[in-house]
Every structure is written in C-alpha cells, then in structure tokens.
Design brief:
This protein folds into two domains: 16-257, Type I PLP-dependent aspartate aminotransferase-like (Major domain) (Aspartate Aminotransferase, domain 2), CATH 3.40.640; 259-395, Alpha-Beta Complex (Aspartate Aminotransferase, domain 1). The chain contains 14 helices and 14 strands. It has helices spanning 16-27, 40-52, 63-73, 91-98, 116-122, 142-151, 203-214, 227-233, 246-252, 259-278, 308-320, 351-357, 371-389, 391-395, and strands spanning 56-60, 81-85, 102-106, 127-133, 156-159, 167-168, 171-172, 179-183, 196-200, 283-284, 292-293, 298-303, 326-327, 360-364. It is globular.
Length: 397
C-alpha cells in the first residue's frame, strides 16, 4: 500500500521574516501602536490592501474578530437579523451572536454553494445584512447575491477565510461586498498561527472598526483614514481590544509574495486529484461555478450511494490508508454541522444542507504536495471507496 503524505504541516515561514522577528525581539517593540512610525502591522495592512485592490485594511486577532467588528461597524440595531449560509464554521454564527444580532440560516446545495431560491425567499424585509461564507473556498453566485442585496439596500460581508486568491469574474473575493474578512490561521494561505484582517473601501466603516478594535485615545491617528471619520466616533464606541501584534505581522508579510505560487500550486493539486476522484463511480467533486477561479488548499467531495454505515466505514478505510477524512455531518461535534450550534437554540429544518453534510467529505491537500503525493492521496481515497463498495476490486480477491 502506498504511504500517504504528511498533509498537516504548514509551509516553512520565509527566511525574510527572521531578521524582522529578531529585531522585534531585541527591541521588545511588539505592540502595534508603540512605534512612532510604521509598525509591522501597519505595513501589513497597507500591503494587503494594495494587494487586494482595497482602500483600507485592519489587521486583528482572528477572522472571527474581523467578522464581529464588520457587523458592529455597520451600526446594526440590537436583534438585527443577518442572513448566513447554513454550511459554515461555528465561528460565523458566533460572530453574529456576539454582535447582538440574530443569524438566519440559508440552505446550501450539494455543490456547497448557497441555494439561491432559499436565499431569495429568506431575504425578507426584516433582514438587515448578509454575511456570505465562501466555505472551504467554494464561491456562491455572487452576481445574484449582490443584485438581490443591493436591490434592498443591504450590506454584504464576505467571510473569505478560505478564499484568499480566489476570483469571481476576475474580481478578488473579499472585494465584492462592502467588507471582506480573511484568516491568518495556520491552515490558511497565509500563516501566522492566528490572526485575521478585514478590508473595505468605506472610510466610515474602517474608522468604526479601527476604534472598536482597540485604537484607544489617539492611536487611531496612525491609520490612513480621513481624520474627521475617526473624530466622529472618538469615545462613542466600546473597545473590544482584538488587535494583531507585530510578531504576527512580521511572520505574515514575507508570505504575501508567496500567494501567487501557493494559489497556482493549490489549484493544480486540487484539479488533478478531483479528476482522479471523479473517475470513481462512488466519489463526486462538484464543479466550480463558471465565473470562479479557486485557490484551494483542501478538497471536498461527496459520497455517492453510501448508507450511514458505509459512510462511517469509508472514513475508517481512508484512515487505514493514511488519509484522514472528515464527513462533516458524521463527525462527532463537528463545528461545521449546523445542528451542533446549540447556542442558537433549536436547529432549523434545513433538509438540503443536512443531506449534503451527511455525505460531504473534507481532506487536506496542501499546495506544497508533489504529483506523486497527490497520486498517493487519490489512490487512498479511491481505494477506501472500493474497500467499502467493492472489496473484491479493492483487494483483488
């Protein structure tokens, strides 16, 4: 049996980060607002905004913090209803709850994208905002979503934690809505261990977000926004103190130059393995939507014609072959299964999303893998399906 590759280690941090980290350690200058000039965090914000084609960026402690601050910066009333996809990570509805809003869950189809019929049906007069998760980098129909939201004058926030480098009709994901939020957690395209960043072209939104992130007293003067926008909100907003530190920024900045390669190699690996999986009658990788160019670092696929027992057997067979697979709805306490979000109360009736989650598989597929390692992953996954559905084919007995 072919030995499966290590898919868990992140790529090494570029050597260019080491000198800056050493400088910071020697100076002890780790707080973003201590430096009289541009701190590493401020430089990261400027460079990231330029890279994405946005006017403003704010680096914070996590993508969850970015989502929370985005909602708070919109000035939504307490109890405002926010439309979100039912297939997302628990941090997304949690951010809505922390922002004193109410998440309204929308059905997601077997292709992991928002079901537009259910989206339109739930986009009622009592909805105040839309938060779209491009979950695992799968982009929903942003043309239709934006048209429906704009017709009602509703702001759209993009949770692009998994989508840095993805484009929709040539536009960077995260720049289509009013605010885009990204992650620097270790399994994302840019790795700081933890961290996040939000981008926007709205000066008032960024001013509110900067102050609430923890730019107390006059620290907001170190952000490149028209000062009257800050003065308008000085001492009028609560501080949540969810800033990014200079060490994290120093780790991320040299990785910005690596984005094109990581996107290219991640897409190459994903599409190669997807072709091999789709050649198996029992596995299906949904095709991307036409305008979408993804930047994947993992692969999702559906089991075809599997019972619950066979689905669990597939997980075990893949693990024996050296590839860890989680079936979102069959993994105990999975934070991506909406019925586990007990902090929301009773789970809503979302049969389409539930059915998808019960057969949707998730496996790591880093951009750094070689063709031989991608072959090993594909062989293990196809072999696991054969172990369950056709043992004679799997073992040649």
């Amino acid at each position: 049996m072919t030995l499966a590759p290590n898919v868990y280690d992140a790529e090494p941090i570029p050597d260019a980060a080491r000198a800056e980290i050493e400088r910071l350690l020697n100076s002890g200058d780790l707080f973003r607002y201590t430096c009289p000039g541009d701190s590493p965090v401020a430089l990261l914000e400027r460079e990231f905004a330029d890279l994405m084609g946005a006017k403003y960026a704010l680096a914070v402690a996590s993508c969850s913090a970015a989502l929370f601050l985005s909602l708070k910066s919109l000035g939504l009333p307490r109890g405002a209803r926010v439309l979100i996809p039912a297939f997302t990570f628990a941090a997304v509805p949690s951010s809505v709850v922390h922002a004193d809003c109410v998440p309204v869950l929308v059905e997601v189809g077997a292709n992991y994208r928002v079901d537009m019929a259910d989206f339109e049906a739930k986009l009622t007069d009592d909805i105040s905002a839309v938060l779209i998760s491009h979950m695992r980098g799968h982009t929903s129909d942003m043309d239709a979503i934006m048209a429906l939201a704009e017709a009602r004058g509703l702001p759209v926030i993009e949770d692009a934690a998994h989508s840095l480098g993805t484009t929709w009709n040539g536009r960077n994901i995260g720049t289509i809505g009013k605010i885009g939020c990204f992650s620097f957690q270790s399994y994302k395209l840019l790795n700081a261990g933890e961290g996040g960043i939000l981008i926007t072209d709205d000066a008032d939104v960024i001013a509110r977000a900067v102050i609430m992130s923890g730019a107390y007293e006059h620290n907001w003067k170190k952000h490149p926004v028209l000062q009257d926008h800050f003065a308008r909100w000085q001492n009028k907003l609560p501080l949540y103190n969810t800033r990014l530190g200079n060490l994290s920024a120093a780790v991320v900045r040299p990785q910005l130059a690596e984005i094109p390669r990581r996107v290219r190699d991640g897409r190459r690996n994903h599409d190669y393995v997807a072709t091999r999986l789709n050649a198996c009658d029992w596995l299906n990788v949904p095709a991307p939507l036409g305008p979408e160019q993804r930047a994947p670092d993992s692969i999702q696929f559906n089991l075809v014609g599997f019972s619950d027992a066979e689905t669990l057997a597939f997980q075990d067979a893949a693990a024996r072959r050296g590839v860890k697979v989680q079936v979102f709805g069959m993994s105990a306490d999975n934070a991506r299964a909406f019925w586990n979000w007990q902090f929301l109360g009773d789970a809503p009736d979302l049969p389409q999303t539930r059915a998808m989650l019960m057969r949707a598989c998730d496996a790591r597929l880093p951009a750094r893998l070689t063709r031989a390692e991608c072959d090993a992953v594909a062989i293990a996954l196809v072999g696991a399906a054969e172990d369950v559905k056709d043992p004679q084919l799997a073992y040649g007995t």
